[in-house]
Amino acid sequence: MGNITHRPVRRKEERPEPAGRAALRKPEAAPSDAPSLHGEVLTKLRDYIAESNLPEGARIPERQLCEMFGISRTPVREALKVLASEGLVSLLPNRGSRVSSLSEQDICHLFDLMGGLEALAGRLACERITDEEIAEIERLHHEMYAFYLRRDLPGYFRINRLIHERIVAAARNPTLSTTYASHAGRLRGARFSPNSVADPDRLSAAMREHEAILDALRRRAATELSDILFSHLRHKRMGVLSHLAMARSGHS
C-alpha cells in the first residue's frame, strides 16, 4: 500500500463580526420565569385597579405599586400598557397613567358585551363541563348563599365572581376566555362591588337567578342557560345604572 500523506486542515480565518450583523442577532432568551412574572404582575395590578382601590380618574402611583409588589418599574409599566389596551387605564404622554372612567354609555355597552360572552360561555359549558366542575360550582353557590344570608356583601360578590368565571372556564374556549378576561376588569368595580347594590330586593332577585343558572347547568340546558345569563347581566346593568343615578343626585 502506498504511503498516505496527511495534509494539515486549514482553519477558516476568524474575522470580527460586522457591527450591523451583530445588532441583527436574536437577543438572548429571557429567564424562564420572565413570562410568569409578567403574568403575575399583570394579574395583581388588574385586580388592584378593578377592585376600586383607586378611584376613577386617579393618577396611578407607579412608585408606590413597585414598593407594594416588590418589583422594578419596568414590569409595572409593561403591565400598564396591557391594561391600557383593555381600557382599564389611560396612558398620558410623559405624565404617567390614570384609572379610566366609565360613562353610562360605556357601562351599557360593556354589560351587553359581557352578557353576550357569558351567554355563549353558558351554551358551550353545557356541552363540555364535567360532573366534578358542576359539583364545584354548586359548592360555591352554597357558599355564596351563606354570605347572602349574613348580608356579607364583600364575601357574596367575591364568590359570585368566581361562579361566573368557572362557567366561562368550563366553555373550554381559550379565545373566549381571553376576550372575557380583557373586558371583565373594566366592569368589576361596578359589577361586583357592595356599593353597586342600590336596591336590596335586587340582591334577592339575583340569588333566584343564580338558582336558575345552577339548575340549567345541572340539566345541561344550553339554550335556557344562555338566555338566563344574558338576562342576569341585563338586570345587573339596570341596577348599576340606577345606583349611578342615585349617586349623582346625592341620595346615596
* CATH C-level of the largest domain: Mainly Alpha
What is the second-level CATH architecture of the largest domain?
Up-down Bundle
- What spatial form do the alpha-carbon principal axes imply? globular
What is the count of distinct domains?
A: 2
Spatial strand order of the main sheet: 1-2
Q: Total number of helical segments?
A: 10
CATH topology annotation of the largest domain: Four Helix Bundle (Hemerythrin (Met), subunit A)
H/E order of the elements? HHHHEEHHHHHH
Low-confidence stretches: 16-34
Whole-number mean pLDDT: 85
- Strand count: 2
Structural class: mainly alpha
Radius of gyration: 26 Å
Euclidean distance between termini CA atoms: 107 Å
CATH superfamily of the largest domain: GntR ligand-binding domain-like
Percent helix, as a range, is: 55-70%
Give the DSSP E fraction (strand runs of 2 or more residues): under 5%
Describe this structure as you would to a colleague:
With 252 residues, the chain is mainly α. The chain folds into two domains: 35-99, Orthogonal Bundle (Arc Repressor Mutant, subunit A), CATH 1.10.10; 104-249, GntR ligand-binding domain-like (Four Helix Bundle (Hemerythrin (Met), subunit A), Up-down Bundle), CATH 1.20.120. Helix content is 68%, strand content 3%. It has ten helices and two strands, in the order H-H-H-H-E-E-H-H-H-H-H-H. The chain has helices at 19-24, 34-50, 62-69, 73-85, 104-128, 131-149, 153-170, 174-191, 200-219, 222-249, and strands spanning 89-92, 96-99. A two-stranded antiparallel ribbon has the order 1-2.
